[in-house]
Amino acid sequence: MKKVLPVSYCVITADVNKSREISDRQELQERLLDCLRQANREFAESLAVNFAVTLGDEWQGLLRGVTKSYSIASYFQEMLHPIAISVGIGVGEISTGLAVRSTEMDGEAFHRSREALTFCKQHNRELYFVTERPGGDALLNTTLHLLQVLKDSWTQRQYQKIMLYKRFRKEKLVAEELGISQADVNKTLSSANGRVYLESQEQICEFFAQGMEILS
Fold first, then answer.
1. How far apart are CA 46 and CA 102, in angstroms?
2. Which CATH number is 48's domain given?
3. What is the value of pTM for the model shown?
4. Residue 6, preceding bond cis, omega within 30 degrees?
5. Does some domain include residue 63?
6. 17: domain range?
7. Which residues pair with 16 in a beta bridge?
8. Could you report the per-residue pLDDT of 99-130, keeping only the tens digit for each?
9. Largest Cα span, the chain
C-alpha cells in the first residue's frame, strides 16, 4: 500500500530582478499582469489562492500542494524572459484561513517562501525551495542551480531554439518556425545540451508528480 503523505500548502513568491533599471515600467507591469492572468487560468486546479501582485513588481500565490510548483515557476520564467526573476517556494502549514488574497494570510509556508526568495536575491539564484525536509531541499536546489548555470551559458538565439523545441518537440517544426535548417536546430540542441536541460526539467516534474517522498 502506498504511504499516504500529509498535505502541505505551497507558497510561491516571485519578484523581478533589478526592476528599477527597466526603463518602460508600464510595459513591464502590463506584461506581468497578463502573465499572472494566464497562469491563474492554466493552473487553476492547483491554486488555493490566485497569483496577484503584492508589492511593486512582486507577486504571490498559494497552491494546494507542491506538485505543480516547479511547473509554475518555469512558466513564469519562460513567459517573462528575457526579464530576469527570482522565485522563492515555501512548503508547510498555514496558520490562518484561506482568503481572497495571499497577503491576508500567514503561516509557515509563507515564511519559508519569503526565506527562499531572500536566498535567491542574496545568492543570484533564480529558483529556490524551502520545505519541511532540509535534506531533500539540498538535493533539489543543487539540481536547480546546475540547470540555471547551464541555461545562463546559452545565447539568446540558443534559448529561443531550445524553448521552441520544448513547445513543438520536433526539430523540423522549430526550423520552419525560424526559417532555418533542421541541422541548425539539431546542432544547437547538441552543443548547448538543450535536450539534457529539457529532460532534466521533465524528471523534476515527474519527481513532484510521483509524491515527492524526499520532500514530504
1. 15
2. 3.30.70.270
3. 0.91
4. no
5. yes
6. 9-132
7. 85
8. 999 999 999 999 999 999 999 999 999 999 99
9. 57
